[in-house]
Amino acid sequence: MKILLLAILALAANAQSAPGLPQSEIDSLVEKTRRDFKAPGIAIGIIRGDQVVYLKGYGVKRLGGSDPVTPDTRFAMASTSKAVTTAAMALLVDEGKMQWDDPVRKHLPGFHLADPSANELVTMRDIVSHRTGLSRNDALWYSTTWNRQQVLQHIGEVPLSKPFRSTYQYQNIMFLAAGEAVGRIIGGTWEQFVAARIFAPLGMTNSGFSAKDTQQAPDVATPHVSRKGVVKEVPWKDISNIGPAGSLNSSVRDWTRWLRFQMADGTFEGKRLISEKNLRETQSPQMVIRDEAPWAELNPETTMSVYGLGWRIQDYRGRQLISHGGSIDGFRAQVGFLPKEQLGFVILTNAGVSSLVEALRYGILDILTDAPRRDWNTLYLSVLARQDQDAEKKKRERISKRVPTTKPSLALSEYAGAYDNAGYGTARVNATADGLQLEWGALKLTLNHWHYDTFQSPDDESDQANTPVVFRLNGDGHVESLSFLDQDFRHRPEKVAP
């Protein structure tokens, strides 16, 4: 009897649902998605009006383990953190300490962009709507040990890939700049402001700011990735150096409080925290997102998509959907709501499988709105399979073009040295008894000869391994530069001793 009672209590702690909600259909959909995408665990929260009507965990926190996912299990929130940063900005706009169209340098004097015109015009609104003209350049924070100030200094030297304000290009480092501006305005840090002005009044006591702090929580998920069809555990990725763009971690129970606040136009349990005007500004269209493959195929019920300030806005079956996804090593998150219908959802998983949370959100929305059911899992998995096939085809094509009988133009020792790039800093090439080794940021890659003066890392050595390293010689036959991560690094001449 005691064992039965404990089992009932554990089940009650792991689930919450409202009468009238199609619980069995939701359960079936989530479990099917978990199986189809080979996810160890999933947690979901559903909101109707201002009420949390469903909270439940599925599966396990760790593959091979027995600890179940609960509504209080912490996951990485990744880029769903961006809307928290823009909410912090909205608070400061309410107080007259910032305006959306303030020049960035007004609040962050050291900030700059490599393009003079963009540097002169760039505003706070620009940096949180992905329209600065900078492409992602995520290696600057993901693959280095640089701190926030160093990341911002380096991105300021990277050339724009598109004209300023001309094109939507997702960009994490600009959200870092926004968070640093928030911290500077209050004379503290982004973390301190969010903790005091957002988490505390919302009662979000199970949310944190870094991988380090979340791993000390009593109920925490372990990240997993799928490689070549095999699901394996990976370490938590510390991304504190990009914090305001994506370092938050939380549970579905905590994040439903955040979402209730968003759905209630800036109020929470009767208390206003942010003006309706400025919160709605974050949820309003700012930049058109082009309908490019494979996005259109994966969103067949959508005709238009735009980016707000930390949120993506699109139509879905004739309804407005405001949402944002998140992705970091071993985790995926999806948060969103239908504002007119007052339906919201939080989906978290410890499987770093692309499209799992997007497929599940559409399935859940179809259930909640009683729309025609569609097999979203099959659609998304088929596109993922084709992308894998395309990647494998490109790899085979590249191998077929390799000229195996060639040799490097120079002795390996002549490729050694320091190579500089204004934005990416210094890459070092060392000649060892086994060949060449490249060091850049936190990366240390073995370089195997591919053909001519092109080298390649083994496929399993790093996520950057498939980026070839190409050396270029000058007219005198000496190494002039190398190309890596789509960047040109100039060979630094050795100093000749007097």
What do you see in this structure?
- The chain has 498 residues and is α+β, with helices and mostly antiparallel strands.
- It has helices at residues 2-14, 23-36, 82-94, 104-107, 116-121, 124-127, 139-142, 148-155, 172-186, 190-202, 211-214, 243-246, 252-263, 276-282, 295-298, 356-368, 376-400, and strands at residues 15-17, 41-48, 51-59, 75-76, 224-227, 230-233, 249-250, 267-268, 271-272, 287-288, 305-307, 312-316, 319-328, 331-338, 343-349, 417-421, 425-432, 435-440, 443-451, 454-456, 469-473, 479-484, 487-491.
- The radius of gyration is 24 Å and the shape is globular.
In short:
The chain is of the alpha+beta class and 498 residues long. Helix content is 33%, strand content 24%.
Query: Would you tell me the overall average pLDDT?
Result: 93
Spatial ordering of strands, largest sheet = 1-3-2-15-14-13-12-11-10
How many E strands? 23
The number of helical elements comes to 17
| CATH homologous superfamily annotation of the largest domain | DD-peptidase/beta-lactamase superfamily
Structural classification: alpha+beta
What would the CATH topology of the largest domain be? Beta-lactamase
Rg over C-alpha atoms, rounded to the nearest angstrom: 24 Å
Strand content: 15-25%
How many individual domains?
Answer: 2
* Name given to the CATH architecture of the largest domain: 3-Layer(aba) Sandwich
Inertia-based shape: globular
At the first level of CATH, the class of the largest domain is Alpha Beta
Give the N-to-C terminal Cα separation. Answer: 89 Å
